[in-house]
Design brief:
Blueprint lengths: L9 E9 L5 E10 L3 E6 L6 H8 L7 E6 L2 E3 L4 H7 L1 E4 L11 H7 L7 H18 L14 H13 L5 E5 L7 H16 L3 E5 L3 H7 L2 E6 L2 E7 L5 H9 L33 E11 L5 E11 L14 H8 L7 E6 L2 E2 L5 H6 L2 E4 L3 H5 L6 H5 L18 H15 L15 H13 L5 E4 L3
Parallel strand pairs: 3-8, 3-9, 6-7, 7-8, 15-16
Antiparallel strand pairs: 1-2, 1-4, 4-5, 9-10, 11-12, 11-13, 13-14
Helix pairs in contact: 3-4, 3-5, 13-14
Length: about 450
């Protein structure tokens, strides 16, 4: 924070949040947000980070405690009231209308959004913001046809267009390229220098050191650390997040390095780890706009191998994964798993070949949010004899035991198998999907932005 700057923009005092299912998300948390400062908010999955910021941004009421400003106590009954006060939040899961364009989604957060004059003003403001921030998106394409990373940029631009005083970003870099992250951070520094307050929720300790002025750590709903970023080592932050020193299997503490990862030799040719599992040849796939998104792609994936696909978001990765998992038809080409052609097959048939799919959009493709953990944990395997009895009656005792095993193995924090998936934090929802897919003992795992 700039030396000499005093006071605070908003402060949370004694915030406790207990959800209707009995989950205690926050316990007597105090947090001060100051002007001209980037605050890094750290914590494990389910630590309460998102819940706290949802209270600050008007999405949730606290069970106990209050939010105050220099003008006195404030209580927001909606995100619009928080926006009018000067607080905007970019959520990990986007609040966009899929059939609307970027311009229409941004205009929607303003009064009289769809008058021709206002739409034109919104377009001009977005064009200026994109030029300034480097966050570029197609303005006239329905956002449901955009890649996840592009949708996130629309969310950031939407909040910036309201000229907020406090900008809250929940895991904003999760689907951005390194260049886009640098551009975003440069924008955040400029906003800070203009006197704006910024809360950055992240799991990436390196990001905290690169951008934050102050760091707050939550663990199991309690505030366990609040200090200047310059005073915090990555080891200290990691220990505060989990409550113990992080050790390797050899029993030695992990030394977290800020330098580049060591290079590893990748076995090639006859030195590969095992036989071919996935063969893709000349694959052509169209995107939602009708244009070719994947053009003549060929590759092989072998058993015992991690095969990475890199690229800027929106360059065909989504369409490639959807074609391989039966969610999108291919125009031409060939793709086989274990020698069996998979193009044009139903996803159920493909999964029976030993494919596990961890989708990039967990809300759209990974979970049924109103369903319980138990119901979500058997999606795709509910017909297995292990979970189905005579007359196709589900064996709920076995299913609940299976869910408890997943909760233990993958560290899923929930009240139990009967908790609705929508009550979990984003990280715990992801753990549930990963656990479910790995429990299938697959031959190949296709993971998109996991």
């Amino acid at each position: 924070m700039t030396e000499g700057r005093r006071g605070y923009f908003i402060r949370a005092e004694g915030i406790t949040k207990i959800y209707s299912d009995g989950t205690v998300a926050l316990r007597d948390v105090d947090l001060e947000v100051r002007p001209g400062e980037i605050l890094g908010l750290l914590g494990e999955n389910g630590a309460g980070k998102t819940t706290l910021t949802k209270i600050l941004s008007g999405l949730l009421p606290p069970t106990k405690g209050r939010v105050v400003s220099p003008r006195g106590p404030v209580r927001f009954s909606s995100p619009r009231e928080a926006l009018d006060f000067g607080i905007g939040m970019v959520h990990q899961h986007f609040a966009l209308v899929g059939t609307f364009t970027a311009v229409e989604n941004v205009a929607l957060s303003h009064k009289r959004p769809f008058s021709p004059l206002h739409l034109e003003q919104t377009r001009r403001k977005l064009e200026a913001l994109m030029e300034e921030s480097g966050l570029r998106v197609p303005l006239d394409v329905p956002v449901e046809k955009l890649a996840v990373g592009e949708q996130q940029r629309v969310e950031i631009l939407k909040v910036l267009s309201r000229d907020v005083e406090l900008l809250i970003l929940d895991e904003p870099t999760s689907v951005l390229t390194p260049l886009e992250v640098d551009e975003l951070f440069e924008l955040l520094r400029r906003l800070r220098d203009e006197g704006k307050s910024i809360i950055l929720i992240t799991h990436k300790l390196k990001e905290v050191g690169a951008i934050a002025d102050r760091v707050v750590v939550l663990r199991k709903g309690m505030l366990v650390g609040d200090f200047k970023a310059a005073e915090a080592s990555t080891e200290k932050l990691a220990q505060l997040m989990v409550g113990r020193p992080i050790e390797t299997r050899l029993g030695r503490p992990v030394e977290l390095s800020e330098g580049p990862m060591p290079q590893q030799a990748v076995p090639r040719g006859e030195d590969r780890a095992g036989p071919g599992v996935l063969h893709v040849e000349g694959l052509v796939v169209k995107g939602d706009t009708g244009e070719v998104a994947v053009q003549g792609v060929s590759f092989d994936v072998h058993a015992g191998e991690i095969f990475g696909i890199a690229g800027v978001e929106g360059n065909g990765q989504t369409e490639l994964v959807e074609a391989l998992t039966g969610l999108r038809p291919a125009v031409s080409g060939r793709a086989t798993i274990g020698g069996t052609d998979v193009l044009g097959k139903d996803p159920k048939e493909i999964y029976r070949l030993g494919v596990a799919h961890i989708p990039e959009d967990r809300w759209k493709l990974g979970l049924v949010l109103p369903f319980t953990l138990a119901e979500n944990a058997i999606l795709g395997v509910h017909r297995w004899e292990e979970f189905r009895g005579p007359f196709s009656v589900l064996k709920w005792r076995r299913i609940n035991a299976h869910v408890r095993e997943l909760m233990e193995r993958f560290g899923i924090q929930a009240t139990g198998p009967g908790a609705p998936a929508k009550s979990l934090s984003g990280g715990n929802q992801q753990k549930l999907i990963v656990g479910r897919e790995l429990a299938k003992d697959p031959k190949i795992i296709i993971a998109s932005q996991p």
